[in-house]
Amino acid sequence: MSVVYSFEIESPFDTLIVDVREDGTVSAKCPDIQKIFASLNENEKENQSFGTRVFGITFNGQSYDKIVFVRRSDKLTPRKVRQRYGAAAKLTGNLHGENAVYIPDETTPKEWFTTITEGFLLGQYKFGKYAKKPPKAPAKIVIAFAENIRAEIEEGNWLAEAAYLARDLSFEPANVATPEEIARQAESIAEIPGVKAEVFGKNEIQALRLGAFLAVSRGSAREPKLITIDYDGAPQSAERLALIGKGICFDSGGYCIKQYEGITSMKSDMEGAAVVLGAVSAIAKAKLKFNITVIVAACENLISGEAVLPGDIIESRSGTQIEIVNTDAEGRLTLADALTYAIEEKKATRLLDIATLTGACAMALGSQYIGTFSSDEDFYKLIEESSRLSGEDIWRLPLSEEYKILNRSEVAHIKNVGERAAGAISAALFLQEFTGGLPWIHLDIAGASRSGKDKEIFAVGPTGAGTALLYNLVKNLAEEGTSK
């Protein structure tokens, strides 16, 4: 992974990345570069990021053979900033650039540099671990003349590293990204100062009475793992946010088996877990002053003589009797027990779960927006602001009382799936039953978790959607606590 550093230009570079202002002037104070921009055809100039090969251009005593232009505007949102500089990084690679220096516009707001750094790095992401021909190493991109923005660049690095961790783990095949491997990743994160990890196996999970979680895992020969990570950034405070990530390492659908078209991507049904692991690594590196607990109930949803059956009734840790109508609605069962565990064992005061939960949410919102539900208005305002800062878009969906009837069971307290209509809402309402009335947010990343295009900040496949969002939420909570 390439890392963006702040420095004075000293080393040789082959690519120059410059900003183009709204008036058509460029950030590099060099008449020759301005002339190159002016000579480009209008179609090229209409692009948000565009590059060209040049010969013998010298800037600050160094020669460059490639230039990438990035259109900037004071009206750009953080999302657009990430996209444009991500596209610039991809262009650098496409032009076979290996060492690039970015000359920022002198009017660029200081806070933009976190997002610019993140964009540069995410735009170059590739997962080539098993490829016959490994992908070319990403270009080293350096931000010049940036002595006073080192903190912002460092923060951008942490966020990009968090997304890389989430994407890498989600890209891995199911025979590699097993519950045991997710536990190993958690223990690796615990090497960061201030972080503690704990892993429980099947016998301990039984002792903890996590019956809904165990029911999902019954069809698999691989042992389930309950994984917790504690980070105490504000040890004097009683406030604690639980970040709960869905950790289904492979989802066959159980006896309600998925069709071929749906099953091929189910190695990534643990992307919620990957995201919370990435987020806590960035939170700990930044030493944010808030207490968080990450919880992942990791297992596989497979078919065997031991697997849960449609019509079974299981008991969750909370004592709730759950009718299993559809074995392919398994993620909410593991999350239900994780929510109860967070309240009773970890004494969480706020709850957030993130999951590739429903195809219904992906159908409703596509790949741009993260479906968002919240039981608390103040908590929702914080995640709304975090969305703006992170550039990860959310869309709020209703927790309507009228829809609770969809989860009503005739033989148990609740059933695990409602009608086909309003599937994302009925799933969220199911989870709400296990939140104990605490402030709670549910993020459904079923659509946002995957990209079908190699474009801007994404490669084809898992996106790590939510890592920056969760980081900024905890940052906002820390700032809110400091101001009280």
Main traits of this protein?
about 475 residues, 8-stranded mixed sheet, 2 domains, 15 helices, 6-stranded mixed sheet, Leucine Aminopeptidase, subunit E, domain 1, alpha/beta, Aminopeptidase
Question: Brief overview, please?
Answer:
The chain is of the alpha/beta class and 484 residues long.
Question: Can you put this structure into words, describing what you see?
Answer:
This protein folds into 2 domains: 140 residues, Leucine Aminopeptidase, subunit E, domain 1 (3-Layer(aba) Sandwich); 325 residues, Aminopeptidase. The protein has 15 helices and 19 strands. Strand 5, helix 4 and strand 6 form a beta-alpha-beta unit. The two termini are 39 Å apart. The model has no long low-confidence stretch (mean pLDDT 93).
Q: Ranges with pLDDT <50 over ≥5 residues?
A: none
- Strand adjacency order, main sheet: 7-8-10-9-13-17-14-15
Helix run count: 15
How does the major sheet shape up? 8 strands, mixed
CATH class group of the largest domain: Alpha Beta
Number of strands: 19
Indicate how many domains the architecture comprises: 2
The CATH architecture category of the largest domain equals: 3-Layer(aba) Sandwich
| Mean pLDDT across all amino acids | 93
- Please state the structural category: alpha/beta
Rounded to the nearest angstrom, the distance between the terminal CA atoms is: 39 Å
Oligomerization: single chain
Corresponding CATH superfamily of the largest domain = Zn peptidases
CATH topology value of the largest domain: Aminopeptidase
Q: Strand portion, in percent?
A: 15-25%
